Model the fold of this input.
Amino acid sequence: QVQLVESGGGLVQAGGSLRLSCAASGRTFSQYAMGWFRQAPGKEREFVASITWSSGITYYGDSVKGRFTISRDNAKNTVYLQMNSLKPEDTAVYFCAAGRWADSQGSSYDYWGQGTQVTVSS
Done:
């Protein structure tokens, strides 16, 4: 079992930055691929970014490429999402997830956090 707790969300103006953190506890964090997803009201869950467990290879959704960066610190059992040049359309609840594969499909992940709200004002 893996427990995930997100933090770092909040209200920011367009063009600003936020860094989300996801702290993991339970089973060996370093053996899991980690992903970030988001869901805005009335919309489907959207893949944001993922990172492999061993080599640290990263993947990004098209809407965040060049603006967001995912990273992980296995010593701290934490994954981060640095979000720059934020836009109002980035407003959503952001979830981190742990799974066997750094996939863009939510069904590939076994464990999910409770989410953290990010609101970007125009």
